[in-house]
Write a sequence for this structure.
């Protein structure tokens, strides 16, 4: 019996990715694959198996066909340029990224069986091996035509016509949240980035994308006890916060391990980026936001915390962000759908510059506001070191990453690009004067 199947858009996308990856492999001659995976047509049936093993006893040779494994099917999906879409991981979950991919692949296989497309063959008794056929249109049909068979089966299935699924599909068609979040991010990038970096419209900050400061996971050290008599000045220094570097991350490693894979005690759900003024906190947060968007990891929503002006995060999201994003005066009808995005763990909140809030205790205020449906969002926050040190206990459930200094080669590249942009801008001004 198939496991419980989610009849949602994500499952359908994974089903189609799996079938298309297998169809692509079927076009290669004689099961030409580096994987233990063989795909062969027989009229309207696409047969999927693994490899053969031969065992010789005396003059007799016995050939046994072994099925393939889910890991090989997953790799074929990636080889075909596809990805397995994942649900947002819950904060308390410790399941790895690879295990989650295999779970979604299993769901896709179960769905194909429920649709009547997949039929299993007896495989080896060894657990984990698969041999099966997919009933599609025909081996002479195009990939698109064969995929349409799956789409039709999906649309005809009674569970895909349920009211819940219909409402989700209607909402997705009426509001493209992915596009809206991308548009809002572009607006904020212009507002929060040095104008010099945008001086040449043809460049649009692209040259600076390759320049990123490394980050270090840090933990706050407890003050050392001192039994000796010390001066007041020495005593105050004893209780100044200090941090111990636990692990260093280069830019790509941070994005992949912390943001995508959720490595760490909070599984990437609560992240604080701290640094000195001008260290690149806002630029780093922008890069994270666009990476989340372009990697289909969720819906990034940017909030410059200075814009709250005394409002709660929830009220700002509904009264300001949502109205500006949808470009409407009233948003009552969309508020529930918007809140559902949070409840379904699809949203990332990018909270920039806690130190610029009007509150005397900004981090305490943020902690008190990450409640209700807002608390389901994953949060990445930036803050200056001095403000973080003064309020650090308010956000104890955040993992702290400190922006380190540029390496010398990066400094040279950065200032060369800034100088180049400055020269371009001065050239345009002089041309206008002439």
């Amino acid at each position: 019996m198939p496991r419980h199947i989610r009849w949602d858009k994500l499952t359908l996308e994974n089903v189609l990715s799996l079938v298309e990856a297998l169809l692509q492999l079927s076009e290669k001659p004689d099961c030409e694959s580096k994987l233990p995976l063989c795909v062969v047509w027989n009229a309207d049936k696409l047969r999927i198996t693994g490899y053969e093993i031969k065992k010789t006893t005396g003059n007799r040779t016995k050939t046994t066909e072994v099925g393939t494994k889910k890991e090989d099917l997953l790799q074929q999906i990636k080889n075909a340029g596809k990805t397995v879409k994942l649900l947002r991981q819950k904060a308390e979950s410790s399941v790895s990224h690879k295990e989650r991919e295999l779970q979604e692949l299993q769901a896709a296989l179960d769905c194909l069986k429920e649709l009547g497309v997949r039929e299993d063959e007896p495989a080896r008794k060894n657990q984990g091996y698969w041999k099966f056929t997919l009933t599609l249109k025909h081996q002479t049909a195009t990939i698109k035509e064969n995929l349409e068979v799956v789409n039709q089966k999906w649309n005809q299935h009674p569970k895909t016509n349920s009211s819940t699924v219909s409402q989700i599909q209607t909402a997705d068609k009426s509001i493209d949240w992915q596009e809206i979040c991308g548009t809002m991010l572009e607006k904020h990038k212009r507002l929060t980035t040095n104008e010099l970096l945008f001086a040449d419209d043809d460049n649009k900050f692209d040259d600076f994308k390759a320049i990123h400061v490394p980050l270090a996971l840090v933990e706050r050290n407890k003050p050392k006890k001192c039994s000796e008599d010390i001066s007041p000045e020495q005593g105050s220094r004893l209780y100044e916060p200090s941090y111990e570097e636990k692990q260093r991350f280069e830019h790509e490693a941070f994005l992949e391990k912390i943001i995508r894979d959720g490595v760490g005690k909070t599984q990437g759900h609560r992240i604080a980026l701290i640094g000195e003024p001008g260290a690149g906190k806002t630029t780093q947060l922008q890069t994270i936001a666009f990476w989340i968007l372009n990697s289909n990891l969720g819906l990034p929503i940017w909030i410059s915390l200075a814009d709250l002006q005394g409002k709660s995060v929830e009220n700002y999201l509904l009264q300001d962000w949502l109205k500006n994003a949808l470009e409407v005066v009233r948003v009552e009808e969309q508020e529930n759908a918007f809140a559902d995005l949070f409840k379904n763990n699809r949203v990332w909140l990018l909270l920039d510059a806690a130190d610029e809030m009007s509150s005397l205790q900004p981090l305490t205020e943020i902690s008190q506001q990450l409640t209700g449906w807002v608390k389901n969002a994953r949060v990445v926050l930036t803050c200056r070191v001095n403000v973080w040190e003064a309020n650090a206990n308010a956000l104890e459930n955040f993992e702290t990453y400190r922006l380190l200094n540029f390496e010398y080669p990066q400094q040279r590249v950065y200032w060369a690009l800034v100088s180049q942009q400055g020269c371009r801008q001065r050239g345009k001004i002089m041309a206008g004067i002439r």
User: Anything to note?
Assistant: The first strand starts at residue 38 and ends at 42. The two ends are 79 Å apart (CA to CA).
